Amino acid sequence: MSCSSSSGSSEEDEGIDSYRKGGYHAVRIGDSFNGGRYIAQRKLGWGQFSTVWLAYDVQSSRYVALKIMKSAPQFAQAALHEIEVLSAIADGDPSNSKCVVRLVDHFKHTGPNGQHLCMVLEFLGDSLLRLVKYNHYKGLQLNKVREICKCILIGLDFLHRELGIIHTDLKLENILLISTIDPGKDPIKSSLVPILERPEGNPNGGVTMSIVEKKLKRRAKRAVARISEGRDSMVGVRESPKSERCLDGIDMKCKVVDFGNACWDSKQFAEEIQTRQYRAPEVILRSGYSFSVDMWSFACIAFELATGEMMFTPKSGQGFTEDEVLYSSYTGSTMSHGYDNYDRSPCLENDHLALMMELLGKMPRKIAIGGALSKDYFDRHGDLKRIRRLKYLSLDRLLINKYKFSETDAVEFAAFLSPLLDFAPEKRPTAQQCLQDPWINFRNLTLNKAKSESSIEKVGVGMGKLQIKVGK
C-alpha cells in the first residue's frame, strides 16, 4: 500500500477539518462500538488515515486499542489490506510470543461521516520515539539497546522466515513498548476503572470543542515560551543541556506494529517504500527489494537508540561553488553536501547516498549503476554525479569521536551493525542470523562465562579438600 495507517502522533491534534464525509469518525468518551462490546475511554493518538482510542472490551474485561479508519474508499482499502496481514500474523502466532502486535477483532461502524473499518488491537505502551524523547535524545545504555533489538529481531525473524512478510516501514514510531513509560498512564498498572457509559455533557460538540480548546492552550504555551526565551536572552541566561534519565524502571520489551505498508515478498505493491531516513540504497536506486530492506532499517534503529540521533539525515542541495570546502555532517558540520551550480534543485536522494558512502565506504560500481534510477545519481564509473567530494569516517570512529563510545563498545557495536548496512542486500545477515550474533548475546555470554568460572573454582576447591586413602 502507498499509505500508512499508523496511529501516528499524540503530540498535536488532527484538527477538525477532517471530521467530515469520508473523514474521521467523531468519538466521545463512553461511545460504544460493535454492539456495545467496546467502550471508548480516551484517545491514544491519530494518523493520516485513522484515530486510535483506548477502549474497554466488556466481553473479555480488558483494555484494547481501537483503531478507527477514515470512511473514504481508499482508506477502507488500506484497512482491508492491513487486516489481511494482521490476520495472517495472528494465525501464525497463536501464543502471542513473536514480538508483533496482535489483532483482536475487526468490524465496520457506521456514523455521520460514513462507514468506518475498525481494528481492535492489543493495548501496548509508548513508541521507541517517545522513549528517545523521554531520554532527552541521549543514547540508551547498550544493554537496553540489546534488549530492544532482540525483541525487534524476534519479530522480524517471524515475519520474514515464517510468514514471508516485509514490513517496509520500520522506524522508532512503529516499535511500541509493551507498557507505558509512565506507569500512571498504563490502564492496567494504574488499575484504571473503566468508563462504561457516556458522561453527561454536550452530546454533539465534545470532540470539536476539545480540539479547539487544546489548540488555544498550545498557542498560549508557545506565547509564554517565547516571552520566557526573550527574557532569558536579555539577561544572558543559557539553558544547560539535559542529562539522560534513569530508565531502570521501564520495561524494554517491545513489539513491531503498523502493517499498513507491509507486503508479502511474493506480492509487492509499491516501489517507493520506507521512511526516508531508514530507506535502503536499493530502494533509492530502484534495484528491487526483499526482506533485507527491513534489516537496513533495523540497523538504523539500533544506531538511533544507542546514540539518540538518526544515522542518516539527508538535506537538500545548496548549490555551492567549486572553491567551497565541503564537510560531512558526521564531523559536526550542519552543512549539506554541495551540488554543482547547474543543479540548484533540492535532491535529498543524492545527499542520502553520499552520507551512506561517507560512513560505509564507496558503493561497488555494479550496485551503483545497476538500478533503474542509477543514472540519476551515478555516472558510468559508479561515482556520484553531483557530489564533488566525500569525507569518509568509519562507523566505529564516528561512535568514538562524536558519541564518546569506549573503543571496545564502538568496535563491537560497529561489527554488529556494519554487515546489516552492506550495499549488497544479499550479503546482509537475516534476523535469524542476527539473533545468534555475539553482540546481541553479550549478556548471556558474560553470565555463562561467570557461571563456568564459578564452577571451575568450586571444582578446584573440592579437589583441594579431597583426601585419598591408600590401604591402612
From TrEMBL:
Pfam families assigned to the protein according to its UniProt record, in alphabetical order: Pkinase
Q: Which UniProt keywords apply?
A: ATP-binding, Kinase, Nucleotide-binding, Serine/threonine-protein kinase, Transferase
EC assignment: 2.7.11.1
Q: Which GO terms describe its biological process?
A: regulation of mRNA processing; spliceosomal complex assembly
Domain Protein kinase: where?
A: 38-440
Q: Carries keyword Cell inner membrane?
A: no
What general EC class does the enzyme of this chain belong to?
A: transferase
Family, as annotated: Belongs to the protein kinase superfamily.
Name the record gives this protein: non-specific serine/threonine protein kinase
Its source organism is: Rhododendron griersonianum
